[in-house]
Amino acid sequence: MVVGENAEIRGLVTGGITVARGGNLRLYGTCAQTLSVEGGGVARVYGTVGGQLVNTGGSAYVWGVIGGLLPDAGETILYRDAIVSGERIEADRVVPPTA
Fold it and tell me: Phi/psi class of residue 28: alpha, beta or left (left: φ > 0; alpha: ψ in -120 to 50)?
């Protein structure tokens, strides 16, 4: 599934989601596979991502649960009590990009 505009998901997406430039996703439900955020895209995760959150240049904000994190570029912020790779985040933190 590709998000290229404003979208709010409250149900289950069995595949992956890509947030493209201009896309603004609010995920309250579940993405069973990878959530990718491209340059110019924004993802706010309140629900669950079963796979990796891959940020290749957009903005990603996590309050919910993600299976793993690959912050290649862009802005990624993990908020207190979010769960990443099974571990609870103790305090808000900005994740530096690896690229």
Answer: alpha
Per DSSP, the three-state class of 19 is: strand
78 and 96 Cβ atoms separated by less than 8 Å: no
Cα–Cα distance measured from residue 21 to residue 5, given in angstroms and rounded to the nearest whole number: 8
Rounded Cα distance, 52 and 49, in Å = 7
CA angle 92, 48, 83 (to 5 degrees): 35
SS3 of residue 53 by DSSP: strand
pLDDT band at 57 (very low <50, low <70, confident <90, very high): very high
Chain segment 10-53, per-residue pLDDT in tens: 999 999 999 999 999 999 999 999 999 999 999 999 999 999 99
Please name every residue paired with 49 in a beta bridge, in sequence order, or none if there are none: 31, 66
